[in-house]
Structure formats: C-alpha cells, structure tokens
Amino acid sequence: MTFYHDSRSEQYRSPMGAAPCASKVRLRVRADQVDSVTLRIWWNNAEYRWFMRRVEGGFYEYEMSIPEQPGLLWYYFIAKDKEGNSWYLGNANDGLGGEGVVTRTEPPAFQVTVYDPAYRTPEWMRDGLMMQIMVDRFNNAGGTDMKNLPRGSYYHAHWDDDPALVINDKRGSNSANDFFGGNLKGIEEKLDYIRSMGVTVLYFNPIFEANSNHKYNTGDYMKIDPSFGTEQDFKDLCAAAKKKGVRIILDGVFSHTGSDSVYFDRYGNYGGKGAYCDPQSPYRSWYNFNDWPDNYESWWGFNTLPNVNEEDPTYKKFIITGRNSVLAHWMRAGASGWRLDVADELPMDFLRALRKREKGIDPDSALIGEVWEDPTKKMAYGELRCYCTGDTVDAVMNYPLREAVLDFMRCRINARDFVRQVESMRENQPKQFFYSQMNLLGSHDRPRALAVLADVGNMEPERKYRYPIELDKRDYDHGKRRLIAAWNLICALPGMPCIYYGDEAGLYAMSDPYCRGTYPWGREDQELLEAFRACDKRRMKSHALRTGDMHLSAIGEDVVLVERSIRGGKDVFGKAAANEIRAVAVNRSGESRWIEYGGKIVEVSGESALILR
C-alpha cells in the first residue's frame, strides 16, 4: 500500500507554509490499494473529518478552507484499506514536518499557522543588522561619578576587570552591584565603529533607573539610570544614530518591577508611597499579596522582583494606554521599538494592547519578544500560544536557531538535522515573521558563543557553570574558526542577524555575569573583527541575502549549503530588486570536504565558510 504526503512539497500542500485567514489550501496524498482517505482537522478545540476525492495520478485531494480567525490548525490523514483496516498518515515523531509517517495509531499532526492577512513587519527589520549592547559594559565617555551609582554599588578600578560574582541569597542571586562606567554618551562616541560593522539597529538591555547593573529590576520607568546619563543624553543618542541610519530598540521589562522602586518601595528609598509601604498606595493593585506586606508573588521566587498584575487597568494605562505612558514617552524620545523581556510570561491580551498602541504611535516600529522556544506553539501557563499570527509581536529572539547553529558547528547534529530544523521554522512561520527574526549567536543570558564553540568542558548555561575561564591559543583559535563559520551561516539565512557586543572582538566567557564583560577596546582580535565586518558588509550589499528566496541543502553529514536568490526582478515580498544569486557553504568538520557546485568540484576547508558566488 502507498500512503504518502509531504507538507513541504507544492505537489502535496499548496500553497506551502503558514496560511492567511480565509484562504484556501489544497491538500493531497498519494494512495493506492485503499477504499477511502479521510482528512482529519483539529481547529479551535473541535474535530472535523472530510472525505477526500480521488483525482488523476493516484492522488486523493481536498481543498481546505482556512478559518477566518488566526490560530493553529492541525491535520492528518486516515486511509481505509480493502480489508477495512485504518492507516494513519501524520507528521514525523519530531514534529518538524516534511515527509509524513504512516502508523496504525493516531499520529502527530501536521501544523498550519493561520495568520492575519493584514500582518506586516517593518522592512528595516529584514533588511537590518542588529547589535545588542549592555550600556554599562560598552564604552565610557566623560568618566564616572560615584553619586550616580545606586546605594551600596561601586565602580571597578579597571575597565578590563572581570565582572564580579557575589552570591547574596540562598537562591544563588548575584548582587549585581558592580559597575564599569559605560554610558549613553559612550555609545554615541562609538557610532562610527558601530556603523562600520554594518549595524543598522541597536538593542539596549534596560536603561531605566534600577539598583542593579543589569537593570531588570526597574526602579523608575520614566527615568534614565543616572549612571547611564539623562533623558537628554538618550534623545541626543537617538538623533545622532538616526543621522547614521541606526535605530534604537529598548528593553521593556513589564512582567515585574524591582522591590526597590517607586511602585513597590520595600526599603523606603522612594518616599514610602509604594505598595509595600502603604496599603492605600496607588500602586497597591499592581501587585498580588498573599499576606501584606512581606508575602507577595515574585518573579521565579526572587523577592527582589515582585510580579505585577498586567491586567490591572491602572498598570495597563501607565505602561501602554495613557497619553504619556511608558511606551509612548520613550518612543517620542526617539526609540524605534521594544524588545519585551519574558514575553511568554505576559498575558496575550497585554501583548495585543502593546502592539496596537505601539503601531498607533509609529506603524514602522518593531516589537520583539523574548521567547526561547518555538514561537509558533509555545505552551505557557496552560495555554498554547502562537506569537506569529499578526496580533502580538513582529519577531522573537531566535534561540531555536542559535541552538541549531551551535549544535551543528559542535557536531551534536548533522547537516540534515540542521536543515530539517530550519525548514520547519520556515514552514510554520509566516514569511514576514521568518524574515524578521532576531537571529543571534550570543546574548546576556547565555555563555559567549566563542566559549561554547571552543567546546572546552561543559558550556551549558546552568548557574553552577558561572565561573571565569581562560582559553589557551589552541582552544581559542578552534572556537574562533567555528565562530566565523557560524556567523557566516547566520548572515546567509533569512532574518535580522544580531551581534552580541564584543563577540566580534574576541570576548569569550561562561554564564552570567561573565558573559557580560566589557568591550575590549584596544585589545580586539582584528582578524575576527574583519571577518565579521566582511560578512556583515556582504549581506548589507546583497538584496538576495536579505530578502531573496532560500534553498537550503545538506551535503553529506558536515556541509550546509545556503543559496539565496532573486529571480524575475522581485524579492520574496514582491518588491522590485535586481536578479541575483548568492551561495555560502559551511563545513563544520575539522577536515576539508569536497562538494559539487556550479558544475565544478570545490573544496570547503574544515570549520569554515566558503563564499561560492
């Protein structure tokens, strides 16, 4: 008996991929020696079954009407053989789509992401290249002043010191009270360097007043932290960056505040009007107290981070809807959008309200979510959430791609596995989302990419691996070769590549706080820097590498070939562009591999990327 379906073939699913609301999708299976084939659909917690009609060529076919509301639709097929037995054809066990698997029991279903046809993401995201910066660790301009630091904090005597790790509670929380003096003026001072790397978007970790160096425990959403500068400094930076073609994205930490804040004020540092001090506080309804004042809900159990009730009307007005809300105030000051901390812990209605207000202020602004898992089907708080249907974010931090790239380069998965994972992303994500993803190798929450790729010891991010490391030249060079190849791979794929500041200069480190070290001005690895710069410039000069179609293939176990093309004078979004083909082959093996391309046999050196055209 033949029973076959491939969700990534136009012959079996047309059109392929995510589908706009109220559209039509033709589904086909090839089947013989069967009496009937039924399409089983699951949508909005209800099951539907439809008989498929037999057509020429041994196919069974059904034209499926896509629902008029965004969401996730699931399907598989059931065949009855001539003896009356049921056979099921569904997704592979890994859930990554493509060729289906035949079973005698109910299989995993294929996914169709149904999105709003009006869904748009800013063109500058898919055309752009991002750099993530922790302000305190990037560059100091104008010196330091102790009076600008929070109580109990200090400046390092030397810019090149390691960050300090001081555990101050049983949960393993770092004091995070050591500063280096980086500021907004320091970033403005380095805009020419930033632009020389091809960067068009800067994403800052939080810059609002808080008593930590990382600022994820907000003290006052309406004030720039004094150690970073002033609101005028921020406006000046945005204006200077805009002149150089660079946009600014801010970090919005809206699921919790700091306990030492205007709003909670556990320690009385803000006048005693916070929810902890005063049961009649205007902020009292923002927080959930089990037993006021000391027993309250907090983020992951850290009592320095009291959770907020995002659905509280006064909180929502303060952050989103008010005339001078946090969102509106900083966008008017020059921000081009937001990265939302722990977006998957924010209620979906809160995200929808954020998007509506942000786009109302500036339709060309960006909203990026921190979602670590598959953004098309993230299970959070008992709810299956999809972040790419057009009503929440424009893109997310693409941690799944990061893991796939690093695993491939470290020989944990082979080229076919890598291709399969990326193709699944393309299949399940709307095109505008897939091409806008924040494609990163490093971040403030993960060990530095070079350290991971050097593969010395266990480089996983658990807190017990928070320690300083030193790589010898052999291990450093090993990690560097892999990093250059990995960055070439990132820049060849659709999405917005993101450099975590210092990765391009040779920084390597384990988990927080060590991955948050200072930029090594004057000590950069020039060879690595130039390799990044060349890759970035190549991408920024090529429409095909930014918005061209993609053909991804595995050549043996060790080589991934990425081909990007523009044909017919238009890119994948229908925008006019010159015809162009670009190709990059990445070999993760430590030895050369020979591949056929363009009618020739070419050598791809070990742990490197070869630009084929």
Task: Describe, in plain words, how this protein is organized in 3D.
- It is a single chain.
- Helices cover 22% and strands 26% of the residues.
- It has 613 residues and is of the alpha/beta class.
- Strands 26-23-22-19-16-13-28-27 form an 8-stranded parallel sheet.
- The mean pLDDT is 96.
Short descriptors:
globular; 34 strands; 26% strand; 613 residues; seven-stranded mixed beta sheet; 14 helices; eight-stranded parallel beta sheet; single chain; alpha/beta
Secondary structure topology:
Layout: E1 3-4, E2 13-14, E3 19-20, E4 24-31, E5 34-43, E6 46-51, E7 53-55, E8 59-65, E9 71-81, E10 86-90, E11 101-103, E12 110-115, H1 123-127, E13 130-133, E14 154-155, E15 178-179, H2 184-189, H3 191-196, E16 201-204, E17 208-210, E18 218-224, H4 231-243, E19 247-252, E20 289-291, E21 295-296, H5 313-321, H6 326-332, E22 337-340, H7 348-361, E23 366-369, E24 378-380, E25 383-385, E26 395-396, H8 399-409, H9 415-428, H10 431-434, E27 438-440, H11 449-454, H12 473-492, E28 496-500, H13 526-540, H14 543-547, E29 549-555, E30 559-566, E31 580-587, E32 593-597, E33 600-604, E34 608-611
